[in-house]
Write a structure and sequence with these properties.
- This protein is mainly β.
- It has one domain: Beta Barrel (Elongation Factor Tu (Ef-tu), domain 3), CATH 2.40.30.
- The chain is built from one helix and six strands, in the order βββαβββ.
- The protein has a six-stranded antiparallel β-barrel with strand order 1-2-3-6-5-4.
- A hairpin with a 2-residue loop joins β1 and β2.
- The longest helix is centred in the middle third of the chain and has 10 residues.
- The chain starts with a strand and ends with a strand.
- InterPro entries: DUF3219 (IPR021596), YkvR-like_sf (IPR023105).
- Pfam families: DUF3219.
- This is DUF3219 domain-containing protein.
- It comes from Tenuibacillus multivorans.
Length: 98
Amino acid sequence: MTDVFINNYLIKAVNFSLEKEQTKGKDLNVIVIDFKVHHDDYHDVTTLLYINDFEVKVPSEDLFFRAEIQNYFTSFTNLYKEGAVGDYHLELIEKKEE
């Protein structure tokens, strides 16, 4: 597992990849993570992702950047049900400096 901090919220990524995307001559970081969300954490994770303005830290990669959501999806698990666990896929792209 890879520890990914999004606005200081710890996510334990079961899959992690770091990619580069070139935009207007600049290489931007893109991280792709898959992680599990338990019923007890559902509200916190949903609220976090709704913000869509993130400071991303990946200590094992010595990585820090500001990001926004490029893509994400979840399983159809009903996370309001006690004991439920959902699969999340999240792609974050580094914000371009203005």
